[in-house]
Amino acid sequence: MAQVHVMDHPLIVHKLSLMRDKSTGPKEFREAVEEISTLLCYEATRDLPLKEVEIETPIARTKASFISGKKLAIVCILRAGLGMVDGVLDLIPNAKIGHIGLYRDPDTLQPVEYYCKLPTDISSRDVIIVDPMLATGGSAIAAIQFLKNYGVQNIKLISILAVPESLQAIQEEHPDVEVYCAAIDEKLNSKGYIVPGVGDAGDRLFGTK
Ligand code: PRP
Ligand code: URA
After folding, report:
1. 80 in ligand 1 pocket by Cβ < 6 Å?
2. What distance in angstroms lies between residue 39's CA and the mean position of ligand 2's atoms?
3. pLDDT digit string, tens, across residues 124-161
4. What is its EC number (predicted)?
5. pLDDT(1) > 70
6. ipTM above 0.85?
7. pLDDT exceeds cutoff 90 at 106
């Protein structure tokens, strides 16, 4: 298994249950995705380095710690990853944002790239990839490889739902990448959907079905 952090905090579990319910509409689904993303990002940024700086409070001089180290970029896998970006930006508002367009071929389930726009200094940034679904893991694996080819050295992946096979595939291809997710579901069905899952995350976010 990849280095996986499953964030089964009650707030996340509750919001994920809302996502799972097929009667939840796009507005509430989007809100749940955004809020879960913020909570997952909180944990994924736990190891950001801090640097002490001397400052003055209104009372005294003191040393205070501020985030230091490499700058961050969020890379969003289109389309469904878009739903996670604002939730992550709530915590790291100065991050630059890249987009990689990938869709799964419905027959082969292989990721097909159709768009890519990354910050020009991406190779000098630490990257958080966002995509709510890790089904076969193919899309995430392709996006990680893409970023490594650009020279990115430190990558984390924030997702919402995974299954054991996607985590295993990511571990095999990219054992250095830590994964943060809300739950690991049981399996994939014959069409490559997560069971019990949430259905097609992109369609539910954007109301396209
Ligand atoms: C979904 C999801 C992931 C991918 C996961 O995207 O957002 O990117 O499937 O599946 P995988 O792990 O088997 O690659 P989809 O291809 O449905 O495109 P969309 O976001 O544009 O709807
Ligand atoms: N993509 C989705 O949006 N949902 C799944 O269950 C699997 C892949």
Report:
1. yes
2. 21
3. 999 999 999 999 999 999 999 999 999 999 999 999 99
4. 2.4.2.9
5. no
6. yes
7. no
pTM above 0.90, yes or no: yes
Which of 108, 121, 176, 208 is labelled catalytic? Answer: 108
Fold category of 4-198+201-206 in CATH: Rossmann fold (3.40.50)
Q: Is the CB of 200 under 6 A from ligand 2?
A: yes
**77: closest CA among 155, 114, 131?**
131
- Euclidean distance between CA atoms 201 and 209, whole angstroms: 11
Instruction: Supply 47's token pair.
Output: 């190891």
| 109 assigned binding-site residue | no
Instruction: For residue 126, give the 3-state DSSP assignment.
Output: strand
Enclosing H/E stretch for 81: none
81 is in an annotated binding site: no
Interval between CA 185 and ligand 1 midpoint (Å):
16
